[in-house]
User: Which sequence fits this backbone?
């Protein structure tokens, strides 16, 4: 599918609002590969977004799907819920009800097999080989997000067409098969994955400039997946509070945390993250549902210290340009970077 793209830029899917049909179409129209995020959506909602995207572009695009996981430790989830009660009281809401939800998994796969899109990517695990084969038989390429060489081997064995290789620098959720604490940087990971797999690699992790894109292409990636770089685009569904935090342009540190969702994700440091990260269990999506009312109330109150502000490590380099202009700028910078490096190697 990447062979049909004029620019080796992929829109990293961002569930929970930022990934809109307009953003997806904007990237695809500019020569990259746009993505919709199926996370937190019913199959019916996803179908509507696919239809909306098709009305905006006839260029290829993809859909990203969360692979359901196993329930977390119920006692640890209950203890964390009790810890959050003072936060809920301060915000005037109750702590949410912890539950396990598979994001309409079966219906979503049925939709994508019956009404295929060019690419289906998976996060939080590798689908069963029969599910991969079903989507491929329908005409879709299947990509799997990996965060280690071991995961890359498993994904290749499942029949995947390509690997989204996510480094530790990436904003938002760690997309690997497990919620492990260890995290390898992108350039190191690309080298390690290339040794064990011949599949095309899409590099993800703090790629904000053309120079960074050129770097991962030189390291063996077929394309770069950019997420944070598009969060402030007018087409993105990023909430105002999140936009404002990113627009300050400071070098506020990012950190991996389970505090908001129960699964490691990288976001801007704020009070909630710093106070609760050490106590949050590995329990996704239970913790996501526990904190959902708190996050909604904090957004309504304009309290940026109590919401998740996902961002990659190079977030200060973001802009408010339209998606197409971001793609064009990154492509031009990458070409210049490649030419500069070539001169050094003469």
Assistant:
């Amino acid at each position: 599918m990447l062979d049909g793209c004029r620019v080796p830029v992929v829109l990293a899917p961002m569930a929970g609002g930022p990934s809109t049909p307009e953003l997806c179409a904007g990237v695809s129209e500019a020569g990259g590969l746009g993505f919709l995020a199926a996370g937190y959506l019913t199959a019916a909602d996803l179908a509507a977004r696919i239809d909306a995207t098709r009305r905006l572009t006839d260029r290829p695009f993809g859909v990203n799907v969360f692979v359901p996981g196993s329930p977390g430790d119920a006692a640890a989830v209950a203890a964390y819920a009790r810890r959050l009660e003072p936060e809920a009281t301060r915000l005037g809401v109750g702590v949410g009800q912890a539950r396990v939800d598979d994001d309409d998994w079966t219906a979503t796969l049925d939709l994508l097999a019956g009404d295929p899109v060019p690419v289906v990517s998976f996060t939080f695990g590798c689908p069963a080989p029969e599910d991969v084969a079903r989507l491929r038989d329908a005409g879709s390429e299947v990509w799997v997000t990996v965060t280690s060489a071991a995961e890359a081997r498993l994904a290749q064995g499942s029949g995947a067409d390509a690997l989204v290789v996510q480094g530790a620098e990436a904003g938002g959720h760690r997309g690997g098969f497990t919620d492990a604490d260890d995290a390898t940087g992108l350039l190191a990971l690309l080298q390690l994955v290339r040794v064990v797999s011949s599949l095309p690699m899409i590099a993800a992790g703090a790629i904000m400039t053309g120079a960074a894109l050129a770097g991962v292409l030189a390291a063996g990636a077929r394309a770069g997946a950019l997420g944070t770089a598009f969060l402030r685009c007018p087409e993105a569904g990023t909430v105002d509070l999140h936009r404002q935090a990113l627009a300050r342009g400071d070098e506020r540190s990012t950190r991996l945390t389970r505090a908001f969702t129960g699964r490691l994700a990288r976001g801007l440091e704020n009070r909630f993250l710093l106070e609760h990260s050490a106590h949050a269990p590995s329990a996704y999506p239970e913790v996501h549902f526990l904190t959902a009312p708190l996050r909604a109330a904090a957004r309504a109150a304009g309290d940026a210290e109590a919401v998740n502000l996902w961002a990659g490590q190079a977030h200060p380099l973001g802009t408010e340009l339209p998606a197409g202009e971001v793609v064009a700028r990154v492509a031009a910078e990458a070409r210049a970077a490649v030419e500069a490096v070539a001169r050094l190697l003469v």
